[in-house]
Specification:
The protein is 40% helix and 17% strand. The protein is of the alpha+beta class. The longest helix has 16 residues. The chain is globular and about 35 Å long.
Length: 147
């Protein structure tokens, strides 16, 4: 028996179109985890300033308008944002409009979600995610932010 796993993340427009046509509407989740501290090379002054000014944790969605998994993730994030209004700041960054920011955060595949504590440390996950996974990451983010 052969099993084929298609990843629901976009690396570039041409590759994404091929994957999208092959996957149809049933793409699967790619889940990569990265953990960084405020001193890591990818950390920027922008994150530090944004989180320090708010003193709230933040979820950053790196996306592109041409990316099908990004489009699927958007309404999921909208619902989660409504649920966590006042506790978590949500930011969306279009990697085509902000390529320098995407490079600085080493965004190689989209969608990429970054979960940032008020101290500036963060974790990322890549690919289309189920609401339960995002909610679990936000719960973990809130717990880490309270410490």
């Amino acid at each position: 028996m052969t099993v084929v796993l298609l990843l629901a993340a976009c690396n570039n427009k041409a590759e994404n179109q091929e994957k999208s046509e092959a996957a149809g509407s049933n793409g699967t989740v790619q889940n990569e985890m990265a953990v960084a501290s405020p001193d890591d090379e990818g950390q920027t002054e922008w994150i530090k300033q944004t989180t320090i000014m708010s003193s709230k944790p933040m979820v950053i969605d790196f996306f592109a308008t041409w990316c099908p998994p990004c489009k699927q993730l958007a309404p999921i994030l909208d619902e989660i944002e409504k649920k966590h209004k006042g506790e978590v700041i949500f930011r969306r960054i279009d990697v085509d409009q902000e390529p320098e920011m995407a490079m600085e955060f080493h965004v190689e595949s989209i969608p990429m979600l970054m979960f940032v504590t008020p101290k500036g440390d963060y974790q990322t996950i890549v690919g289309l995610q189920k609401p339960e996974i995002i909610e679990a990451k936000i719960a973990e983010l809130l717990k880490r932010s309270a410490q």
